């Protein structure tokens, strides 16, 4: 199966400054802006915002 160009793989980086990243997919048609997720940062040991890194 070919990968869908509408759902690219993106890295989301922690805003806590720890350098921790998650890798996920997003639908470019529905969410053309940069993705912001609230996830757990194990280095900071708390939930923080993760912003899409390009």
Write up this protein:
Belongs to the bacterial ribosomal protein bL33 family. It comes from Amycolatopsis cynarae. This is Large ribosomal subunit protein bL33. The protein contains no helices and four strands. A four-stranded antiparallel sheet has the order 2-1-4-3, with no helix packed on it. It has a single domain (9-53), classed as Rubrerythrin, domain 2. It has strands at 9-14, 21-25, 36-41, 46-53. 7% of the residues are buried.
Give a topology summary.
Elements: E1 9-14, E2 21-25, E3 36-41, E4 46-53
Antiparallel strand pairs: 1-2, 1-4, 3-4
Which key features would you list for this structure?
54 residues; four-stranded antiparallel sheet; Ribosomal_zn-bd; Rubrerythrin, domain 2; single chain; elongated
Main sheet summary? 4 strands, antiparallel
- The CATH architecture can be named as Single Sheet
Q: What is the CA-CA span between the terminal residues? A: 25 Å
Number of distinct helices:
0
SSE arrangement, N to C: EEEE
| CATH homologous superfamily (4th level) name | Ribosomal protein L33
- What structural class do the secondary elements suggest? mainly beta
CATH class: Mainly Beta
Protein name: Large ribosomal subunit protein bL33
Keywords: Ribonucleoprotein, Ribosomal protein
Family: Belongs to the bacterial ribosomal protein bL33 family.
Pfam families: Ribosomal_L33
């Amino acid at each position: 199966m070919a990968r869908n160009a509408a759902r690219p793989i993106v890295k989301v980086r922690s805003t806590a400054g720890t350098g921790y990243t998650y890798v996920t997919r997003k639908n470019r048609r529905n969410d053309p802006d940069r993705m912001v997720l609230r996830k757990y940062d194990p280095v900071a040991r708390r939930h923080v915002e993760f912003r899409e890194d390009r």
